[in-house]
Write a structure and sequence with these properties.
The protein has 166 residues and is α+β, with helices and mostly antiparallel strands. It has two helices and twelve strands, in the order αβββββββββββαβ.
């Protein structure tokens, strides 16, 4: 009886691991995402080494609105479609860069759709013009919903149901 109970306990441990994995979506190291406002579909780099997501904006300006700090920036997709976005600055993040000085970046909330998952996430603003991907998706967006398969890319198309829209 003792060995039977041990066997059952041991088996249950291994059975729960696949069940946990089944509740998460598997994505590759690069995926197409949709960002809002603007309804842009762009290629994004999935980066589990970055805590916060980043979006390409070579230039931004801060301003005061209702006693709070806001930021205005342009986002342009690869086809040249441009959208000016205004968001409240949540905080300023200090980014450590290897072999370079730390950099301060404003952080805003944007809505991001990856696969069928639509959620609001913190995104810092940075000039990513020299990178292949205009958006970097970090751990704070990925947590609880995604597992990353580093051997694949572009496995999901953004196909979200937008809250409040039919």
């Amino acid at each position: 009886m003792k060995y039977f109970l041990l066997f059952i306990s041991f088996s249950l441990c291994f059975l729960t691991v696949p069940m946990l994995a089944e509740t998460k979506f598997i994505v590759g190291w690069a995926e197409k995402v949709k960002i809002f406002p603007g309804n842009f579909t762009v290629k994004a780099r999935i980066d589990t080494g970055a805590k916060t997501s980043s979006i390409n904006t070579p230039f931004y300006e801060t301003f005061e609105k209702d006693g709070k700090t806001w930021v205005r920036f342009d986002f342009m997709d690869k086809k040249g479609k441009k959208k000016t976005i205004e968001k409240e600055v949540l905080r300023t993040s200090k980014i450590k860069r290897k072999g370079m000085k730390s950099e301060e970046r404003p952080v805003v909330k944007l809505e991001i759709c990856l696969g069928n998952v639509y959620k609001e996430s913190e995104v810092n603003l940075v000039d990513r013009s020299n990178f292949n991907y205009q958006i970097l998706i970090g751990r704070s967006y990925l947590e609880n919903d995604f597992l990353v398969d580093s051997s694949s890319r572009f496995t999901k198309k953004p196909n979200c149901k937008i809250p409040g829209k039919k």
